[in-house]
Amino acid sequence: MTPPATPEPAEAADERRPLTIVMAADTFAPDVNGAARFAERLSAGLAARGHDVHVVTPSVGHSKHGTFTEVIEGQDLTVHRLPGWRWYPHDWLRFTLPWMSKHYARRVLSQVKPDVVHSQSHIVIGRGLTRIAHQRGIPVVATNHVMAENIIDFTTLPPVLDKIVIKLAWDDARRTFDMSRAVTTPTRRAAEFLEQTIDISGVVPISCGIDKGNYTPDLTPREHTRVLFVGRLTTEKHVEVTLEAIAKLVPELDLHFDIVGGGDQRRNLEQAAHRLGLDERVTFHGRTSEEDLRAAYTRADVFVIASIAELQSIATMEAMASGLPVIAANAVALPHLVHDGENGYLFEPGDADDLAGKLRRVLTAPPEEYLRMQEASLKGVEIHDIERTLDTFEALYRGEPLPS
């Protein structure tokens, strides 16, 4: 006879109750970038598990601030939109006045009374919430999405001052991270970058995560002609290198390049496509719906990312979940996703000739070789399952050992 189960201690049961979580995000929907997409998916995933998630982020218009219920990834989230101001050197970036961040933090934390704060940025909102939460004994988990290349193009300062500003910013980041229970970043390589940059230790690599069931790979044999890029059109993405590589392959190969995303470099890239004689071979789709984005992945034959500033690249994971071979710059975290000769190829950053050669190799591969790369992408993305990401962050929030 099986003995009756021992009742769970009250304190253990309390540990498993749903949490109230404040998510601090300097960028969030409707922004389209990796950090915003991660904050959205994480927040929605936590809400789907029964947690009470409050997102603190800038308003889209200065007068449109307040607290709203917003549907994100199919989940109702409470979103606290702080008064946001447009940063005009950037095409969409908004910010909250830095000297007001602690004031807003006090107000939100007093209203919500969270169990934990998760900072998605140490720059403005996350900085203020971390400091006030630390004062009040509320645990903080911090995630770093920032690299220098992501911000120096928009400082409007003379280049000679960039290094000084970046050093000051990283010094402040370290002070913020020192107040956190845990510091995370999307990959082991990104963790090493952060540890070396600000001389901290113990940064936890946690994938941004992806629900691969949302994507529809096409493994049927077909002619391979469509090249795809998805992401912000900013200088560190180096989309012009892909344009130059495609120009080297035309008319040898009948290629078409689909570019999905918006950004301040769109006009320059349109001019580059015209100069290279690619007007009829390049389509700028701008920002699209999720449905159209997923359809673009399914139609494509290869995904190319020439960026030199990726701490993970959600777009690359989406491409892999769509069964695409990937050609990526051999820089920062991209080799963590793209294994040369397995699910695609790495090329020397900025080298259009090298990229053109890798494009030719993928697009002219025999059917069995191309299928092998597709299957390698699908297998490689399995370890980035969003449920594993949610399990890990839940453990950090509760102060528990991390799942293996």
From TrEMBL:
<dbReference type="InterPro" id="IPR028098">
    <property type="entry name" value="Glyco_trans_4-like_N"/>
</dbReference>
<dbReference type="InterPro" id="IPR050194">
    <property type="entry name" value="Glycosyltransferase_grp1"/>
</dbReference>
<keyword id="KW-0328">Glycosyltransferase</keyword>
<keyword id="KW-0808">Transferase</keyword>
<protein>
    <recommendedName>
        <fullName>D-inositol 3-phosphate glycosyltransferase</fullName>
    </recommendedName>
</protein>
<dbReference type="GO" id="GO:0016757">
    <property type="term" value="F:glycosyltransferase activity"/>
</dbReference>
<dbReference type="GO" id="GO:1901137">
    <property type="term" value="P:carbohydrate derivative biosynthetic process"/>
</dbReference>
<dbReference type="InterPro" id="IPR001296">
    <property type="entry name" value="Glyco_trans_1"/>
</dbReference>
<dbReference type="Pfam" id="PF13439">
    <property type="entry name" value="Glyco_transf_4"/>
</dbReference>
<feature type="domain" description="Glycosyl transferase family 1">
    <location>
        <begin position="224"/>
        <end position="376"/>
    </location>
</feature>
<dbReference type="Pfam" id="PF00534">
    <property type="entry name" value="Glycos_transf_1"/>
</dbReference>
<feature type="domain" description="Glycosyltransferase subfamily 4-like N-terminal">
    <location>
        <begin position="32"/>
        <end position="211"/>
    </location>
</feature>
